[in-house]
Specification:
Order of helices and strands: HHHEEHHHHHHHHHHHHH
Length: 454
């Protein structure tokens, strides 16, 4: 085996008594629910602070019970089922969206896997379970959750929810590819797909320093996967009223909101596990305190990192406007996927050269030469593309453009221009009208004589 492949030790899992497994499962569920309740209040408070507003301040001290008040309000609302909906799928869709959001947390490590803590006299790992392919399990579960949104849009029997569901499906496909490539870089560097092993491999240096491009790609894709601003196209109220959940109310609407916030917590936990050292203490603390990564302290570092990523979600929502749908697709297909694939090739090349015991200088020379060759090819291709575009432009300009071809407004093709739009009257005529003179020239429906006769 290569010295750079991690030795997976999953012997601590599968030995807990049944009651301890239940306790850990309840803890994972409670952790998600409490974090969601806190995140809703925190989002309202932070966005209000950014926009110089007061924010929630009525329910509980400092408005801290606003999330519970929202939940009670939604449960007491009338539960409406639209007449033309496919009722079975319509009711099932919120459940399909919410349940997979809770399942991914099962393989996230909250602490060391070596039995660091004791629960009622039993030594156990701070993780519900782990798998040799735990990250593939997370990808599979995240992919299932999107079916809830698509089925909700289809089963509502309305146009706007259907468009929102289709947007969500296309968005998931375009961003899931780049996310998988970002994960693959971590797999190559750690030599494992086990979440606990990936965290163990970051004992000396976090992967955010070794794989910064993968981290940035995953940050963008996780915002697109959770349908959060500025990528909240499936529920954009500006053009789709409410998107896929337009026809939902009461507790079913609350299930969609719960799934969104739970997904935020889940992807933040995955980002922490893969790139931010997981439960490990940050460097200044771990440098002078030997016990920072033992006992219950790792849970604190994990929660702090997740909350920082949740603050990043809130910061984006209060800062950036919603992008257009074509910009969203262009970013996913033309930017994220090519960058992630090229970066994955570079990481794979570096790992292969390291496994062959090449020196760092040789690796930098080979990789740098490949990058320069790629840039040179791209530059030459851009030159030829620009020449071809200039050659095609005169031919396109000769084509007549009718903005109402076929009776419907159509956009111009590349190289075509819209005909000039009639503007305001000449200045002399405006002065005559303002000063009380007769409007001798109309908008074109009558001539000057008819205007004066009127």
């Amino acid at each position: 085996m290569s010295p750079y492949l991690a030795a997976e030790d999953l012997s601590m899992f599968g030995r807990d008594p049944w009651w301890l497994v239940v306790v850990k499962a309840v803890f994972c569920f409670a952790f998600l629910m409490v974090t969601v309740l806190f995140s809703i209040v925190w989002e309202r408070k932070v966005v209000a602070w950014m926009q110089l507003r007061i924010g929630p301040n009525r329910h509980g001290p400092w408005g801290m019970l606003q999330s519970l008040a929202d939940g009670v309000k939604l449960m007491l609302k009338e539960d409406v089922v639209v007449k033309r909906a496919d009722k079975a799928v319509y009711v099932l869709a919120p459940i399909v969206a919410a349940i997979p959001a809770f399942m991914a947390i099962a393989v996230i490590p909250f602490g060391p896997s070596g039995g660091e803590i004791s629960v009622f006299g039993h030594r156990t790992a701070m993780q519900l379970t782990d798998l040799p392919i735990a990250m593939l399990y997370i990808l599979a579960v995240a992919s299932v959750g999107i079916y809830g949104i698509v089925l909700a849009g289809w089963s509502s029997g309305s146009t706007y929810p259907l468009l929102g569901g289709l947007r969500s499906c296309a968005q998931m496909i375009s961003y899931e590819i780049a996310m998988g490539a970002a994960f693959a870089s971590v797999f190559l560097y750690s030599g494992s797909m086990s979440t606990s092993t990936i965290v163990e491999q970051q004992h000396d240096r976090w992967y955010i320093l070794l794989l910064p491009v993968s981290f940035l790609i995953y940050i963008v894709t996780m915002i697109g996967e959770t349908n959060r601003a500025p990528f909240d196209m499936p529920e954009s109220e500006g053009d789709l009223v409410g998107g896929f959940n337009t026809e939902y109310s009461s507790i079913k609407f609350a299930m969609f909101m719960l799934a969104e916030y739970v997904n935020m917590v889940t992807v933040s936990a995955v980002s922490t596990t893969l790139f931010l050292g997981g439960w490990r203490a940050p460097w200044p603390v771990s440098g002078f305190w030997a016990g920072a990564n033992h006992g219950w302290w790792p849970l604190l570092w994990f929660v702090v990192k997740v909350q920082l990523l949740l603050f990043f979600f809130i910061w984006l929502r209060g800062t950036l406007p919603r992008v257009r749908y074509d910009q969203l697709m262009k970013l996913g297909w033309k930017v994220l996927i090519p960058v992630s694939v090229v970066w994955l090739m570079l990481v794979a090349s570096v790992r292969a050269l390291r496994n062959e015991n090449y020196d760092f200088a040789d690796i930098a020379l080979y990789v740098g030469g490949g990058v320069l060759a790629l840039l040179l090819v791209s530059f030459v291709a851009d030159l030829f593309r620009e020449k071809g575009r200039k050659a095609e432009q005169p031919a396109a300009e000769q084509l007549g453009f009718d903005p109402m071809a076929g009776g419907f407004p159509v956009p111009p093709l590349p190289g075509q221009e819209l005909p000039p739009v009639p503007r305001r009257r000449p200045r002399r005529e405006r002065e005559l009208i303002v000063s009380g003179g007769v409007d001798t020239v109309s908008d074109g429906s009558t001539d000057g004589k008819e205007a004066s006769d009127d």
